[in-house]
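I have a small job for you when you get a moment. Can you supply me with one protein entry, sequence and fold together? It will help me judge whether the discrete encoding reads sensibly. Write everything out right here, beneath this request:
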Amino acid sequence: LILSSQDGFVDTAWFELQVEEPRENVPQGPDDYGYVCFDDTDGGWDLAPDYDWIEISLRENDRDHNGTPIDFDGNSPQDIGEAIVIDLGFVTQFYGQEYSQVTVATNGFISMGDQEMTTNFQNWPLDRGIGGGVGMIAPFWDNLRLRGDESGIYYFLDEENHWGVIEWYKLQHRSSGNNDLTFQVVIYDKRYWITATGDPKILIQYKSISNARGGGTAWDNAVPYASVGISSPEGTTGISYTFNNEYPVTSAPLEDRRAILFATSVQYFRAGYLHGTVTDFETGNPIVEAMVYTNYGFAARTDADGYWFIHDALAEVSFNITASKLGYNDSTYSDT
């Protein structure tokens, strides 16, 4: 990229952009917002996910964390499914909008925000806004049901790593009766998982899955297979990983141990915190109301003890950090 000014200044910035034609083993997208869909077969891409199941079901003895059961009854009027709003415990961002709550549905999808009336047992394509308009993350949108105490839906918040996982454990196709549909969605805290747009990645994983044909009713016969993908809150754009057992050439078929990831950038960074004190070099006394800032725009002011704290600074990259106050020379640490 060649940059020039009217005064004749010229500079050059180098960057790499990976571009591919749609084919097998490459990502899908971007959609009109900028989301790109990767799966575990996209081996040539750094952001391609690896399957790494996070077990939170209390029914499993060998689990990673103790998930909290989401209090579904297992029954609903006219068997249309249930939906319950949960607090994430952090703020995420999806298609440019911030959310601290999501609505979890027994029919294999999440609606962003408080949308407890959205049960949608009839699935549609995610990229066409049909049945959308709710901001949907759909790991396996189909007409599903819980099977008493054998199955359940759980949530776990990892406060140390700043993500939350929702697991559908051993659900069943309502019409075909196929059992043991176990899948999960991992949602990330936007303050600690940094991207250019502010939208953190979304990870979907399948421990046990069967995209089986439904049957028995006119609705099931109309769309006998599940929908997988994401849809914007306005329903104007999205990505359909699969619909009605039809896959774009970029999508690997659903199977056990599959991982799918949605992201708005092919690069993302973790965030962390920075803290310290600013003192007068000559006297060692703390300096009050000094500005401390990084070259990425993260900043704080010192208190009466000269102490400062930045809770969400960009991490995993080199940066400069400067302390500044009128009447003093600036002090900068470079390439930290």
The radius of gyration is 24 Å. Residues 218-222 form the longest helix (5 residues).
